[in-house]
Design brief:
Helices cover 1% and strands 40% of the residues. The protein is an all-beta fold and 379 residues long. It has one domain: Beta-galactosidase, Chain A, domain 5 (Distorted Sandwich). The chain has a nine-stranded antiparallel sheet with strand order 13-14-15-16-29-25-24-19-22, with no helix packed on it. A seven-stranded antiparallel sheet has the order 2-1-3-4-5-6-7, with no helix packed on it. It has a five-stranded antiparallel sheet with strand order 21-20-23-26-27, with no helix packed on it. A hairpin with a 4-residue loop joins strand 24 (288-295) and strand 25.
């Protein structure tokens, strides 16, 4: 059952947000917010709804800075949510996880839950088989972010969320100031811009952990995926990289040409993709194409562009998920987590994740939504 909406906010001039009536459903390019009737400590949790003139709708919670539902049309104009989400947003507070959240301070894994930086060793929470994952049990996904600003331009609407992570939180050094800007455009693009600064040297690796199903239900084995990556990171049994960048050619890791998720998944260890791919950047701008996903029955297409060096493909085998009368299979979704490489703090040959005072962390990921006609299905 849905919790009652206690307040509702709409965008006014200069980005002010005040209690008022909801924007009408046909308002086109719009942004609205509400309090969901739940608090974490003394802080109210808010939900923002961004909508464009194509009826694409993106919902964002201040809890975990999470993207909950993303609604897009199929080739016939039928609207459906293409992310896994909970109907009652209050459930996110009781059923903790990383469903659509911003993950930090460090997305993915750090071996033995420790790293050395400038001659000092730091011990982190060991919350994954003796290793550290996704910022620890009280990482960014469990925090209520502040609303740093909202805006409406002629071609986009956006909400900016901010968080102060104190020195020593989950073992990380430095007080970190981090922001994420979610922007929905009239070009059917969802932008995620991350910025951060610190007062002490630290490690930082941010991603969004949305679970995508372009069909809206069922499994994702029939989704066609192309990754602009000819190398990946082999791992040990605990999913810690071995330190090498291996070619995908001739292996079940190869998605250089579009293939269905299920075409070779039975041959993958554990029958599940959970691997970081190295994005090809030769002849690509800084905002490079990382992935393209197409769902044949609906014609929905999602392209992912990013400034980050890697993308983690995760196919969520065995994830138990239900929503209303929707049924999902053994593979209910796929994740495409743009990020730096797992265990980068302990691998000097990987791109550095060190952030120092006076520097600004800046990364961007873009999701572009479109459709293809039935006759134009990618081969």
């Amino acid at each position: 059952m849905h919790r009652p909406v206690t307040t509702c906010c709409v965008l006014l001039a200069l980005g002010a947000c005040v209690c008022s009536a909801a924007l009408p459903a046909d308002a086109g390019l719009s942004i609205a917010c509400r309090e969901i009737g739940e608090k974490v400590g003394d802080v109210e949790v808010r939900e923002f709804t961004l909508t464009n003139s194509s009826a694409i709708e993106v919902k964002v919670l201040t809890y975990g800075a999470m993207i909950t539902s993303v609604v897009v049309p199929d080739r016939d104009g039928k609207l459906d949510a293409i992310t896994l989400f909970r109907e009652d947003p209050a459930e996110y507070l009781t059923k903790r996880g990383v469903l659509g959240t911003v993950v930090g301070r460090f997305a993915n894994r750090i071996a033995e839950a420790k790293f050395a930086l400038d001659g000092r060793e730091y011990q982190l929470a060991a919350n994954s088989r003796g290793n550290h994952i996704h910022g620890g049990p009280t990482g960014f996904h469990t925090q209520v972010w502040d609303v740093a600003g909202i805006e409406k331009q002629s071609d986009s609407v956006a909400v900016r969320l901010s968080l102060i992570s104190p020195d020593g939180h989950e073992g990380y050094p430095g007080t970190l100031s981090v922001e994420v800007l979610y922007r929905l455009t009239e070009s059917n693009e969802l932008w995620m811009d991350y910025t951060a600064t610190t007062d002490k040297p630290t490690h930082l690796n941010l991603t969004n952990h949305a679970y995508w199903n372009l069909k809206g239900e069922g499994d994702v084995l029939g989704h066609r995926l192309a990754l602009h990556a000819d190398r990946y990171l082999p791992t040990d049994d605990a999913k810690i990289p071995l330190g090498e960048l291996a070619p995908v050619a001739g292996t079940v890791m190869d998605f250089m040409e579009a293939k269905t998720i299920g075409s070779r998944i039975a041959d993958v260890e554990g029958e599940n993709y959970d691997h970081c791919y190295v994005i090809n950047r030769k002849d690509q701008p800084r905002l490079a194409l990382a992935a393209r996903v197409e769902e044949p029955s609906t014609g929905r297409v999602m392209e992912v562009y990013t400034t980050q060096p890697g993308v983690q493909l995760y196919t969520a085998r065995g994830m138990q998920f239900s929503r209303g009368d929707r049924t999902y299979g053994t593979y209910p979704a796929l994740c495409l987590e743009t990020q730096h490489f797992p265990n980068a703090p302990n691998e000097p040959n990987f791109p550095s994740t060190v952030l120092r005072p006076g520097e600004t962390f800046r990364e961007t990921t873009l999701h572009r939504f479109s459709t293809v006609p039935k006759a134009g299905r990618t081969k």
